[in-house]
Automatic annotation (TrEMBL):
It comes from Cellulosimicrobium protaetiae. Signal peptide: none annotated. SUPFAM superfamilies: Alkaline phosphatase-like (SSF53649). This is Arylsulfatase. Residues 6-349 form the Sulfatase N-terminal domain. InterPro entries: Alkaline_phosphatase_core_sf, GAG_Ulvan_Degrading_Sulfatases, Sulfatase_N.
Length: 503
């Protein structure tokens, strides 16, 4: 093992549903994912892991350990958006760099496309990947897209696949749209076209494997955050994977994703470092069901973007041989925010949450933030029988849908359609015991109003939990306002973008 702690390989899939891996569906579905399942067989499989409501939020939660509502990264980052990862919010990479780690982020970023938001000025030595969801990347190939409109291209076209390196040289050159370059080098390798999407997973895989090999040869522990483009819409597969399963394009894409995982695990085996490496496989949000058959599967009610369990529950597998017992299934509450303090604890810093509350120096940066994550290492290793987390807050893009405390979930407002639906606020909060009704399917039962009346005692504790939660925002308020798609805010954003370009 490296002196400063284990290597870390985090594989973050995109829009993969809770039951899309065969270690979760147990043969109920027709396809298998043996390489993903291997992580479960050799480590832990979590049933109650919560991601976030959408892509940007899930990624921000994982890499910062903070709630997206706190960082302002609650919704999808569109080309040209002013919101992005702020320098005051430390990433996992920035926190492990002083411990001697080599750091790389490969694949989809989605935390802002301006230069100041790129991973290589937020603790990563290298970044190779795309900046948006796939359907945004392929918009320029639509027949009515304004390709011949220079001003539109100048301000709103998606950026290409970037190859970036952190640098000690501070480049003060300024791009009219993407801003100051700063201490990094940036090479745009060209757009992620529909044709390129067919082989992008091979490209990303090669970069991650190369970084792992170079770090191992240099004797440096590594953090590799490998972000696949699978399984976000739209799925563009090469001939190798097309029509492979007989169960549709999504199942075919899952086979490619499983192969990627197998190649990464095989590299660790080949280098003899599997026992010294923490491997995590998870997804950024709940399944996107409304695009089925090019969409994920989950037994839970709802989907990505909604406050039901199906919008937030994600697969989560973690392996660390000799530390995390093999083939265990854990039912405690876990969230992507827990990754940062858990990895820091594995690297020897078990009190990072307390350090950041008081003010913590990491390299040449000083951070003072409220980590919403918990150190789950004692739970994962079996030293503690219980999860360190009792609660979870179901934030949408702008609103709090619900909270969970242990077995109970309390809905304050509900929504059944991500894009076209309206928020509904019940007269009283709606309780669900997730150990009695994990799929939230009995809330439509004729007797449910009686149940609500009997369980009104759950409302007062929920209010107390919310009060305690709100107090953390008084001391550590949201870093920035999240983007909104109401006309007034959109107009303000457009005018600001144009004004910046004309300066």
């Amino acid at each position: 093992m490296a002196e400063t702690g284990p290597n870390v390989l985090i594989i973050l899939a995109d829009d993969v549903g809770w039951s899309d891996a065969s270690c979760y569906h147990d043969g109920l579905m027709g396809t298998t994912t043996p390489n993903i399942d291997r992580i479960a067989d050799e480590g832990a499989r979590l049933t109650d892991c919560y991601a976030q409501a959408s892509c940007t939020a899930g990624r921000a939660a994982l890499i910062t350990g903070q709630l997206p509502m706190r960082t302002g990264l609650t919704t999808v980052g569109l080309p040209g958006a002013e919101q992005g990862l702020q320098p005051e919010d430390p990433t996992l990479a920035e926190l492990v760099k002083p411990l001697g780690y080599a750091t790389a982020q490969i694949g989809k970023n989605h935390l802002g496309d301006r230069n100041e938001f790129l991973p290589t000025v937020h603790g990563f030595d290298e970044f190779y990947g795309n900046l948006y969801h796939l359907n945004a990347e392929e918009e320029p190939e639509q027949p009515d897209y304004p390709r011949d409109h220079p001003a539109f291209q100048r301000f709103f076209a998606p950026r290409g696949v970037l190859d970036c390196r952190a640098s000690e040289v501070d480049d003060d050159s300024v791009d009219e749209r993407f801003g100051r370059v700063g201490k990094q080098t940036i090479h745009d390798s060209g757009p992620l076209t529909r044709e390129r999407m067919e082989t992008i997973e091979d490209d990303l895989l090669n970069h991650s494997i190369d970084f792992i090999r170079r770090s191992h040869e240099a004797g440096e522990p590594f953090l590799v955050w490998h972000n696949t483009t699978r399984m976000h819409v739209w799925t563009r597969l090469s001939e190798r994977w097309r029509d492979k399963t007989g169960f549709g394009v999504y199942a075919d894409g899952m086979q490619e994703l499983d192969w990627v995982v197998g190649e990464l695990l095989g590299t660790l085996d080949e280098l003899g470092i599997a026992d010294d490496t923490i491997v995590i496989f998870t997804s950024d949000n709940g399944a996107e069901k409304f695009t089925w058959p090019d969409g994920g599967t989950s037994p839970f009610r709802g989907e990505k973007g909604l406050g039901w369990e199906g919008g937030f529950r994600a697969p989560f597998l973690i392996r660390w041989p000799g530390h995390i017992p093999a083939a265990q299934v854990l039912n405690g509450i876990f969230s992507l925010e827990d990754v940062v303090p858990t990895i820091l604890a594995a690297a020897g810093v078990g009190d990072i949450k307390e350090r950041l509350l008081a003010g913590h120096q990491a390299g040449d940066k000083h951070f003072r933030v409220h980590l919403d994550g918990y150190n789950q290492l004692p739970y994962l290793t079996g030293q503690s029988p219980e999860s360190a987390r009792d609660e979870f807050f179901y934030y949408g893009e702008h609103d709090l849908f619900a909270i969970r405390y242990r077995n109970w979930k309390i809905h304050f407002q509900t929504k059944d359609d991500w894009f076209g639906g309206q928020l509904e606020r019940p007269t009283v909060p709606l309780p669900v015991n997730l150990r009695a009704d994990p799929f939230e399917q009995h809330m439509s039962a004729p007797s449910y109003p009686i149940y609500v009346g009997e369980k009104l005692w759950t409302v007062m504790p929920a209010g107390y939990i919310l009060q305690q939660h709100a107090q953390t925002f008084a001391q550590f308020p949201p870093r920035q306002a999240p983007p909104d798609f109401n006309p007034s805010q959109m107009l303000a954003a457009v005018l600001s973008t144009v004004a910046n370009g004309l300066e």
